[in-house]
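Lab notebook, design round three. We kept the backbone fixed and only want residue identities now. Task for the bench partner: fill in a sequence for the structure below.
Input structure tokens:
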């Protein structure tokens, strides 16, 4: 009897061990990576720029002797100048932004000359004319960013607005072509007025930090013509035919909220699967 009970107990123990061996360990659910919400770069920004301006005066005209005799300057040249400005803008999305800018064109010296007659008796003369101008430009601009390649984002843009062009007094001295004499200097009062202006831009933004971008680019300004100087001693008034300004520019933009971290959602609790029977 004892041998029978011992045999039954041994058989049960062996069966229990075999059953336990058939139980596979619980397999955890694979951990999913954290969900990250990436926000598009949008928001307000400030900008500042400086540039070197190659200024081109498209010509000038004046009344000579009477109001019915308007003639062109034989020579009308402007020296190069500098520009400095700033603005505020909004990054609409990764491809479109817009801003309002205000720029100052530093003094550009004007050198001109005209030919005519002077003295008594009248002889052929050449008048040497000197003046200078400054300009303030207010523009509303829009840009298309053409995708980001590493840290560089090329762009194109256009703007529309106005420029206040201020001419200083024009001083001219007429001298006989044979060098025999020169008339006294005549001063014409300078004029200033607002003119329609448009701009075309191209360049590239360079990521410096998460909210600072350097900007290197080119801007073309087309400024309409307007009043240049007034009447004095049977000469004038005069007007210029407008300016074409080619600018090489560098600047920076500061984007508010550009360093905002992407939102993070922690993964849910990972439940264990029930034991698997083989």
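Proposed sequence:
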């Amino acid at each position: 009897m004892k041998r029978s009970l011992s045999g039954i107990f041994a058989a049960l123990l062996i069966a229990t061990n075999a059953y336990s061996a058939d139980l596979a360990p619980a397999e955890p659910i694979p951990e999913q990576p954290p969900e990250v919400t990436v926000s598009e770069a949008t928001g307000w920004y400030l900008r500042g720029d400086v540039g070197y301006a190659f200024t081109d005066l498209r010509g000038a005209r004046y009344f000579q002797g009477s109001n019915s005799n308007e003639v062109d300057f034989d020579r009308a040249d402007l020296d190069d100048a500098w520009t400095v400005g700033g603005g505020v803008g909004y990054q609409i999305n990764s491809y479109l932004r817009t801003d309002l800018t205000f720029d100052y064109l530093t003094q550009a010296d004007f050198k001109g000359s005209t030919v005519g007659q002077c003295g008594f008796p009248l002889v052929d003369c050449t008048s040497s004319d000197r003046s200078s101008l400054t300009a303030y430009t207010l523009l509303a601009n829009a840009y298309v960013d053409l995708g980001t390649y590493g840290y560089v984002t090329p762009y194109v843009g256009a703007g529309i607005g106005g420029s206040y062009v201020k001419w200083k007094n024009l001083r001219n001295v007429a001298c006989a072509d044979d060098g025999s004499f020169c008339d006294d200097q005549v001063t014409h009062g300078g004029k200033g007025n607002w003119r329609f202006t448009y701009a075309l831009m191209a360049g590239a933004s360079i990521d410096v930090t998460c909210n600072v971008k350097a900007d290197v680019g080119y801007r073309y300004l087309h400024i309409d013509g307007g009043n240049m100087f007034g009447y004095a001693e049977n000469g004038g008034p005069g007007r210029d035919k407008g300016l074409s300004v080619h600018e090489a520019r560098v600047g920076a933009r500061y984007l508010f909220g550009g360093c905002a971290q992407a939102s993070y959602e922690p993964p849910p609790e990972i439940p264990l699967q029930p034991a698997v029977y083989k």
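Keep this in mind before ordering anything: Residues 35-39 have pLDDT under 50 and may be disordered.
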